[in-house]
Amino acid sequence: GVVVIRMNRPESKNAISRRMLEMLKCTLANLKYDKQARVVIVKSDAKGAFCTGADLKEVRSLSEEEAPKFVEEIREMIENVAALPMPVIAVIEGFALGGGLEIALACDIRVASTESKIGLVETKIAVIPGAGKLLKRSYLVN
């Protein structure tokens, strides 16, 4: 059937915390082997935001060893979205920024409302987007 992954951290516009990351990783690991799942829809329950990337407040609280590991785990989670054996659809309503945009790009199909704001805010401060897999998907924007 249809599986819906709902991101729901409205207080942070679905910024990816360690807890949210663990939940996404667990869900994706289970879906990989779910023979009943025919299609996956990734969407937000937070009004005005699909996902705004890593939770920067939480990242600032991490040690120098923990922060790169957290970013690497987000990258792996995004790769796991792309590797799912069934079609994955991103439903974008509101902000899809940084890692949130990369999650959407990892999906097979993206549907966005006309009010959506999509971008890589990292580039404004000359930082390569954290998950770093954007170049692999650059052919999508032709």
UniProtKB/TrEMBL annotation:
Recorded hits in Pfam families, A to Z, give: ECH_1
Which InterPro entries does the protein's record reference? Answer: ClpP/crotonase-like_dom_sf, Enoyl-CoA_hyd/isom_CS, Enoyl-CoA_hydra/iso
Q: Which domain of life is it from?
A: Eukaryota
Give the Gene3D superfamilies listed for this entry: 2-enoyl-CoA Hydratase, Chain A, domain 1
Q: What is the residue range of the signal peptide feature?
A: none
Which GO cellular component does the record give, naming just one? Answer: mitochondrion
Q: Name one GO molecular function term.
A: catalytic activity
What GO terms in the biological process aspect are recorded for it? fatty acid beta-oxidation
Concerning its family, UniProt says: Belongs to the enoyl-CoA hydratase/isomerase family.
Q: Which PANTHER family match?
A: ENOYL-COA HYDRATASE-RELATED, SD19268P
The name under which this protein is listed is Enoyl-CoA hydratase
Query: From which source organism is this entry?
Result: Parascaris univalens (Nematode worm)
